[in-house]
Specification:
single chain; alpha+beta; Elongation Factor Tu (Ef-tu), domain 3; OB fold (Dihydrolipoamide Acetyltransferase, E2P); 4 domains; four-stranded antiparallel beta sheet; 3 helices; about 25% helix
Length: about 400
């Protein structure tokens, strides 16, 4: 009986020993785990190796962007100056480059030539009659004091002489008119330029004043930029403008004239920019009348606070930069960005001139990250040690 009573007692002792050993082990593990975060905090590693930069003052160009249409500088209308004639020949087409005085079209001239011949015969007839009248008047003048002719007869001969001379002048005027009609059977270019429209058709009988061709004078085009009334005061004749067509072609022109009025509906005015022709004298390559184009006006330079492009990070539609603090941690600051020229960006607001910013690696940082600053690499090929380090992953944190 006594042997069976000692067995539960042994079990209780063994259980007590096991519990004590477990408590000791648990206490030891907890004390060790509480010491690791402090050590890890004391030996915190930087999230990234970066280079730094500072803002600087730079002279940036002031540019004004505008839109507008390409149009002909001036257009000439070439029409028919003879009525009721048949168009016999058309020598040019749309797009042809013509010179001043070049023959564009020709009308049938047979009927005009017949009228010219008739008018010339009329001149000869009137001249012969004038010679006879002059001879009679001369004889009357020599016998005027002899009483051979009465005063009435003398006046009749002298009047006939004047009438014959007037008929000669009238016949010559009729001949000149018919010669002018004959000249008008040839349609010639009033100025050098490019044919922009053609309505002339061979065989058509056209009336006087009917337009046959339209001509862009001297092949000159202009850009009519639409500028708001507040910006119109900055436009001066001679201001340089770079115009880009829909095809991507570019031309540099200068302001010729600023419109004296503003559209009351749109509150914008027109600025006329001359576009230079190419060396061949044709229209500017890639530019056509009626085409939409955009451009920029160069209005001078101004001083601005700028930072490198790589120091600006775009997140959620806003621009940020990372300022380096004295404890080697970074603070995210919001910037208001202005002009961009090359690899420099203008900062309008949000940055002081003496702030030190993260240059390389800014896109991988978050607010409050610890960084390691190194000098910017030289122009030689960069080694692996100079490459930005990747952000510390959770698996590398000392707290795990």
């Amino acid at each position: 009986m006594n042997r069976f009573k000692l067995k539960p007692l042994a079990i209780v002792l063994i259980a007590a020993c096991v519990i004590a050993a477990g408590a000791i082990a648990l206490f030891t593990s907890r004390s060790g785990s509480t010491g690791k975060p402090a050590a890890a905090q004391a030996q915190a590693k930087p999230a990234l190796t970066v280079t730094t930069t500072q803002a600087q003052r730079s002279a940036l160009p002031i540019r004004l962007t505008a839109n507008g249409n390409i149009a002909a500088w001036q257009e000439a209308s070439v029409g028919a100056e003879s009525s009721g004639l048949r168009l016999a020949e058309v020598l040019v087409n749309v797009g042809d480059v013509v010179q001043r005085g070049q023959l564009l079209a020709r009308f049938a001239m047979e009927s005009i030539q017949a009228d010219v011949a008739q008018a010339r015969a009329g001149v000869n007839e009137a001249s012969a009659s004038a010679l006879e009248a002059t001879a009679n008047a001369d004889r009357v003048r020599t016998l005027q004091g002899t009483g051979t002719f009465s005063g009435q007869q003398i006046n009749q001969y002298l009047t006939a002489e004047q009438t014959a001379r007037a008929r000669v002048e009238s016949a010559k005027a009729a001949l000149a008119a018919q010669a002018l009609r004959l000249k008008y059977t040839e349609v010639r270019a009033p100025d050098s330029g490019v044919i922009s429209a053609r309505s002339a058709t061979v065989g058509a009988v056209v009336a006087n004043g009917t337009e046959l061709f339209r001509l862009i004078r001297q092949g000159r085009l202009e850009w009519r930029a639409e500028v708001t009334s507040t910006e119109l005061s900055h436009m001066l004749p001679g201001t340089q403008a770079t115009v880009t067509s829909a095809s991507g072609a570019q031309r540099t022109g200068r302001v010729r004239m600023v419109a004296p009025t503003v559209d009351p509906q749109t509150r914008s005015g027109l600025v006329y920019v001359d576009l230079p022709n190419d060396p061949k004298g044709d229209n500017p390559a890639g530019f056509k009348a009626g085409m939409f184009a955009r451009g920029e006006f160069a209005l001078g330079n101004s001083q601005a606070l700028t930072v490198p492009q790589q120091a600006v990070v775009v997140r959620d539609g806003f621009n940020y930069a990372f300022r380096l603090n004295t404890d080697q941690r970074v603070s995210q600051i919001k910037l208001q960005i202005g002009r961009r020229v090359g690899d420099r960006v203008e900062v309008l607001d949000g940055l002081s001139a003496d702030a030190v910013l993260v240059a390389s690696g800014a896109g991988f940082l978050n607010d409050g990250d610890l960084v390691k600053v190194v000098s910017a690499p030289a122009a030689a090929p960069t080694s692996a040690s100079n490459q930005p380090l990747a952000p510390v992953k959770p698996a590398q944190a000392a707290t795990k």
